[in-house]
């Protein structure tokens, strides 16, 4: 589905999960159900490792990790009352240089 960015107007194309599974199945020569199981297992293992605080490096693609985002002051949009947003853990992805170069080409 094509959508444009509200802020800058750039056109974005989203690759939805069923389309991604179909593309992986076609490229790997697997039935769609097998490709879906492989994707589910890979995503589950990455999420499990990150939840345990580990870093997951996939050669030729990038590194998935967890960063701690510091707490900060905020304001309640409804009442304007100041509030404190506590620190939290957030997922992070860093692509390898080859992927960065491919995206900039």
Characterization of this structure:
The protein is an alpha+beta fold. The protein has 3 helices and 7 strands. The two termini are 23 Å apart.
Based on the model shown, name its key terms.
two-stranded antiparallel sheet, HU Protein, Chain A, 105 residues, alpha+beta, extended
Condensed summary:
With 105 residues, the chain is an alpha+beta fold. It has 3 helices and 7 strands.
Number of domains: 2
Distance between the termini: 23 Å
CATH topology of the largest domain: HU Protein, Chain A
> For the largest beta sheet, what order do the strands appear in spatially?
3-4-7
Work out the radius of gyration. 19 Å
- CATH architecture classification name of the largest domain: Irregular
State mean pLDDT (0 to 100 scale). Answer: 89
Order of helices and strands: EEHHEEEEEH
Biggest beta sheet summary: 3 strands, antiparallel
> Regarding CATH, which class of the largest domain?
Few Secondary Structures
* Number of E-type strands: 7
Strand content: 25-35%
Question: Overall 3D geometry?
Answer: extended
Helix content: 25-40%
CATH superfamily of the largest domain: IHF-like DNA-binding proteins
Helical stretch count? 3
Q: By helix and strand content, what is the structural category?
A: alpha+beta
Low-pLDDT residue spans: none
